[in-house]
Amino acid sequence: MYQIPEHGDCFVCGTANPKSIGLTWFLEDNNEIYAEFTFDLSHQGPPGHVHGGASAAVLDEAMGAVVWRSGLQVVAARLEVDYKKPLPLGQKIVVRARISEKQARKVFATAEILLEDGRVAVAGKGIYVPAPYLFSQSKFLAAKPTKKVGN
Predict the structure, then answer these.
(1) Does 82 participate in catalysis according to the annotation?
(2) Distance (Å, whole) CA 49 – CA 125
(3) What b/e readout covers 74-94, taking b as 16+ CB neighbours within 10 angstroms?
(4) What is the pTM of this model?
(5) What are the tens digits of pLDDT across the range 19-74?
(6) What structural domains does the chain harbor?
(7) Which of these is catalytic: 9, 60, 82, 117?
(8) DSSP 8-state code for residue 89
(9) What are phi and psi of 56, to 5 degrees?
(10) Which of 12, 47, 73, 75 is most buried when burial is the number of CB atoms within 10 A of its CB?
């Protein structure tokens, strides 16, 4: 597993953004994206639980990142979010994303946010389309994983 570079001002993972949610992404040997995180009070929607928009943003970023790591500069064209269980604040969660299919002009990805006990709290599917013209200044695509973590 390798830590992958964050990309500056990103709302979900950018260290240059003081309002970033603060996730750190890892690339696993099977090309999945992975993160562990604990949502705090700043991410609250219903009392004691994560705002649906915060969890949707995390899923979108995870799916977008896994597609980027495959070598494509993309944006979301469609995002589906399935809220299966309330996502409590203050509990460690795991986020996983993978590419499920590639077509000529579309890449399909899936992701989920897992509770500590392994149950899926929020699942997502996305369709991502190339948009390299939006990312001419981005260093994220060219950056190599920075450090090996674990085995």
Answers:
(1) no
(2) 22
(3) bebeebebeeeeebebeeebe
(4) 0.84
(5) 777 778 898 989 999 999 999 999 999 999 999 999 999 999 999 999 988 888 89
(6) 2-135 (3.10.129.10)
(7) 60
(8) T
(9) -65, -40
(10) 12
Instruction: Give burial (CB, 10 Å; 0-12/13-18/19+) of 6.
Output: buried
pLDDT per residue as tens digits for the range 84-130: 999 999 999 999 999 999 998 999 999 999 999 999 999 999 999 99
- What is the chain's length? 151
Q: In what order do the strands lie in the sheet with 2-3?
A: 74-83, 120-130, 107-114, 92-102, 33-38, 26-27, 2-3, 147-148
Q: With cut-offs at 50, 70 and 90, classify the pLDDT of residue 10.
A: confident
Structure tokens at 90: 């203050």
Residue for token digits 């509770």?
A: 115
DSSP string of 14-64, one letter each residue: -TT-TT------EE-TTS-EEEEEE--GGGBSSTTBB-HHHHHHHHHHHHH
Give the closest residue to 95 by CA, choosing from 69, 56, 128.
56
